[in-house]
Amino acid sequence: MKIRLEHNWREFENGLSGRDAKIRYFVKSNSNLAVLALMARLDSGFDIVSGGELERVIRAGGKPDNTIFSGVAKTENEIAHALKSKIFSLNLESPAELKRIHAVAKELDVPAPVSVRVNPDVDAKTHPHISTGLREAKFGVPFEVALELYRFASQQRHLAVKGIAVHIGSQMTSLDPIISALSQVIDFVKQLNRDGINIQHLDVGGGLGVRYKDENPPTIREYCRSILDLLEKRGCNLSISIEPGRAISAHSGVLISRVEYLKATEAKRFAVVDAAMNDLLRPVLFDAWMEIVPVKQKATIEEMLSDVVGPICETGDFLGKDRLLAVESGDLIAVLGAGAYGAVMSSNYNTRPKPAEVLVDSNHFDAIRTRETFDQMVNLEVIPEQIRI
Ligand SMILES: *Cc1c(COP(=O)(O)O)cnc(C)c1O
User: Fold this and answer.
1) pLDDT recorded at residue 315
2) Which domain does 193 fall in, by range?
3) Considering only CA atoms, which of 177, 199, 202 is closest in space to residue 190?
4) For the whole model, what pTM was predicted?
5) How many structural domains are present in the chain?
6) Closest Cα partner for 149 from 184, 182, 202, 195?
7) Both 62 and 106 in a single domain?
8) Which residues line ligand 1 (CB under 6 A)?
9) Are residues 216 and 266 in the same domain?
10) Which of 170, 188, 232, 287 is deepest in the core (most CB within 10 A)?
């Protein structure tokens, strides 16, 4: 098998070998059932943020008892669903959430496995929308609050303290913030031990960045090595889990689109393509630069500086700006690095069907999401009797 997803996952496996460590693929970056099934076959764990993602993991053959439930807003139903499925841990992010988990666990009369996600107040040095470890972020709780939560949880029959979690952001290209956050967490675990609260598991988060343009993130091996080195140096022998999303999925996928028109105005040249911000939101949402290349290089046409734009009626609808591209109408282009936070963020805006998804294994390929039809797009909509013509 020659699938990039598998290769990337194995880089983590190799990087962590010799340590009691679990890779828990972060489902939100690419949650196609086939992608999850591939991970499940590798015996990967999962990390999820909704009841829907839990259903996906189960449907794909993943194990709930190797799955962590993260996120700031778990509903009662989601908590109950997770507990009944025997989730590995509910990573909680507020005192109110602990209270709710406790109530649901009592009702079901099962002990809820819980970990507290701490917020170490560390700047991940990434885009503000995906930076999660600063005090003003909605994520996690400060160490003082975590201490209170552990004290409470350790005394309840219906709560089982499982571990501690930290995740300070996504698309991180430097190790320093991660190491600084983990260092603080290790200190805190020692403080908890002195308090008689014994933590067995450390969830080191995800967030390792990838290279889209000229970023220089550590490799997966370097990233794993520096985490393991830190744990060793600090005498921390907890079992760990690591929750990569993007580092596994981003460069496992490309978005293919066709050039419909070339359009020149006095100010600019545009390549108008048939993909749009509803298919790939990262460029406009995060101001993200993603590489765009022609699928076939043509030496016969001249490279021209172009904005690559889609059919949606918004000026924000672009995939790339000021790109040197040698393309003509009818050509295919590929947007690289689109495997993470691409399809999962797509919508039907402008009543555009979502694109098909294809899994490529060397020279074999399978459709893993078929093209959406008009009926599928409007199926849930209802015209009430009194306004029907
Ligand atoms: C999104 C998320 C991740 C994965 O982030 P990537 O940048 O895709 O690796 C890990 N942990 C938590 C809590 C997250 O919300």
Assistant:
1) 84
2) 2-250
3) 199
4) 0.95
5) 2
6) 195
7) yes
8) 26, 28-29, 47, 70, 167, 170-171, 205-208, 243-247, 340
9) no
10) 170
